[in-house]
From TrEMBL:
InterPro entries recorded: Peptidase_S1_PA, Peptidase_S1_PA_chymotrypsin, SEC_C_motif
Pfam families: SEC-C, Trypsin_2
Domain of life: Bacteria
Source species taxonomy: Bacteria, Pseudomonadati, Pseudomonadota, Betaproteobacteria, Burkholderiales
Gene3D superfamilies recorded: 3.10.450.50, Trypsin-like serine proteases (2.40.10.10)
Identification of the protein by name: Serine protease
Amino acid sequence: MFVTDHLAHCTTRVACTFPGGAEGTGTAFVMNLCVEGSNAIPVLVTNRHVVKGAVTGRFWFTLRKPNANEPDYGKHHNFELDNFSQRWLYHKTLDLAVMPLQPFIQQGQNLGYSYFFSPLTPDLLPSPEELADLPALLDIVLVGYPNGIWDEKNNQPIIRKGITATHPELDYNGRPEFVIDAACFNGSSGSPVFLLELGRTVSRASGMTIGNSRVKLLGILYAGPMHFATGEVRAVEIGQKTIAVTGVPNNLGYVISSRAVKDFEPVLNFLNKNGRLPARNEACPCASTKRYKECCGVTS
């Protein structure tokens, strides 16, 4: 498979139901964390606001062709989970959440399902040196489900292009995030944002190099600024006057820097080793000297 084919298989659509029956959709992607040799902990990564408070949630994995490491398009398995909000680990300060996937992969295998997806790996995270060598104005792609739109038949996301609007090395307004110039809509929350260079790479040190390609996970989309248009809507039949307020996207998106996903690794390692999360009053696994409930467990 070509590199862009793998990008199309790293995400899943997330559909949530909230108290009172409200529904929402978002994007999650599969990533391997806590990698040690051939061992890793696969997780789903999304935004906290996508799943926090959800009563039930669904996501989809494409099935693998029998005896072949290829997607069996048109065939996929739907996971539907109760107590969805409680199944995630939440970042203590950022709009991020992860959910360990191995129990669901094993559950599917017990039912005879073999899944095809392309997990992202830590080597896709740009190092500080790589970020410093990137010039301003980079081509990016984001993969997700804007307004919940997807190829339901083939379980495929929507891939969109854009450019960086601020440099991903710099913390925008003092936060570990940057801005992209791309069409960002509800449902795209949780989308991975990639630097994608095919057939040429650019850097501050070397300029443009023809023939090379590069893919890096720059961050996770979580929000975007909007301006509001107001207009008068008249219901002539009954003479009522209503003012409609419409949010208009600015075609900008706020993206959490990808290095933040590594913040989950201490708790994931603890969970993997002990088969449970830390008790509220235990020392936090991140070695902050705080208790878990005051640190990485503050919002979980």
